[in-house]
Amino acid sequence: MTEKMATRSTAILTRRGLVAASGAAAGVTLFGIGRSRAAAPEFSYKLATNLAAEHPLNVRAKEAADRIRQESGGRLDIQLFPNNQLGSDTDALSQLRSGALEMFTLSGLILSTLVPVASINGIGFAFPDYPAVWKAMDGGLGAHIRTAIAKSGLIAMDHIWDNGFRHISSSTRPIITPADLEGYKIRVPVSPLWTSMFKAFGASPISINANEMYSALQTKIAEGQENPLAAIWTMRVFEVQKYISLTGHMWDGYWLLVNAKAWQALPEDLRTLAAKHLNASALDERADLEKLNISLRKDLEGKGIEFKTVDKEPFRQKLRQAGFFAEWKGKFGDDSWSVLETFTGKIA
Ligand code: X2X
348: pLDDT confidence band, cut at 50, 70 and 90? Predict the structure, then answer.
């Protein structure tokens, strides 16, 4: 274990220890000063994320939580736990379902282990650009997915948060054509769609939660991974990778999920206030990322990353030939697929 890794795990252990040892009291200690004259919160909710604290998703979620705390006169106190402090995505999703955790931002593709249709926006090369994504996700496709989520005991806020278009990074060889993915050991998040897609490319995908990605790359359990530039930057993936190929092979976003019982426990005025700020902050976060996607390229080059542009058509062709689109159309069913195609045009 390197010194850096040791420091990381110590920090995580310490935070976990603190949370475990003092529970809700930790929140009082951390936020007590600003609130010394306010009453204790009526509702104290935890919000977990899998991204580093400096990622715009956390910066904006914290801003929303601060506004909600202030405008509710301290009645609703949402505490942010970034960086998988409360456990891996798999763990956090089960805590969310049981009510041990009230709020969680999760990729729709990972949520699909519970709500299958939630991965539909991740179909390879479905969306050409952000305007097409937001039209679908703020429109009929997002509504279709949120309806399915609501049947699972979870509530999704209206506006999905951006993770981004995903690109492949590598420590061994640059990925330029689908042939480069033949037998390639690539870390993918824990989700059937990701595994299926990279198998269709001819690669050897390995399912690993985000909190174990860095060490999997460092120890070469995986040669590469795929993520948007902002995640690659804030999770310091560039330290253990050499190339980034701008494949933009899928768009991925975070639903802000709330345990339905915890949501319904809030009086209507607090629900309205929370939804207003969380949805507004999601839009701010999208704008932050759109800017970062441009500036981060230079920053990553400054850290020694070599960028490669790729022709996407042979990748799409490879998925078509492997029967990927036909298979997933069958899995999602004609109804859901036609909602997707309303926004993307005919796929494959
Ligand atoms: O696990 C990932 O790769 C991440 C951070 O992008 C997701 O949450 C899907």
Answer: confident
pLDDT at residue 68, as a whole number: 98
Atom of ligand 1 nearest to the CA of 226: 3
Cα-trace Rg, the chain: 20
- 273 alpha carbon – ligand 1 mean position (Å): 28
Q: Indicate the residue type of 56.
A: P
Look up residue 170 and give its amino acid.
S
The structure's pTM equals: 0.89
How far is the C-alpha of 348 from the C-alpha of 345, rounded, in Å? Answer: 10
Distance 190 CA to ligand 1 centre (A): 9
- pLDDT, tens digit, 9 for 90 and up, residues 3-57: 344 334 333 333 333 333 333 333 343 444 444 455 689 999 999 999 999 999 9
